[in-house]
Amino acid sequence: MGGYSMTQANLMTTQPASFDDGLDRLETLVQKLESGHLGLEDALREFEDGVNLSKALQLQLADAQRRVEVLKQGLGGEYRAEPLEGELS
Hints:
Elements: H1 6-14, H2 19-35, H3 40-76
């Protein structure tokens, strides 16, 4: 797949349309896994999809945090990195 590693390729195909859509998909995957009704191969495939989706969502959150920090810097002229609401210090 070009110059991409398998992980990068998985993240690209797992990238949700929006963060909320991705979170909904992840919750659905977790429910399927917790149900105990999947065979081993299906459970492994769903787990792998969930891990890749989780990584993609983490990247989206990190990007959003960087954007907030840049906006805060631009508002006051001086840079102050503050935790986002709900983030543990």
